[in-house]
Amino acid sequence: MNSMNDTGAVAGPASGRTSHTHRLCGLAGTGFIATLAAMVATTLAAALAQAVGVDFEVPDGGETIPLSGFAVVTGFFSVVGIVIAVALLRWSARPAERFVWTAVFLTAISLVPPLLSGANTATTTALLGLHLVPATVMIPTLARSLRTRID
Question: Transmembrane residues, as ranges (predicted)?
Answer without folding.
Answer: 24-49, 69-91, 98-116, 122-143
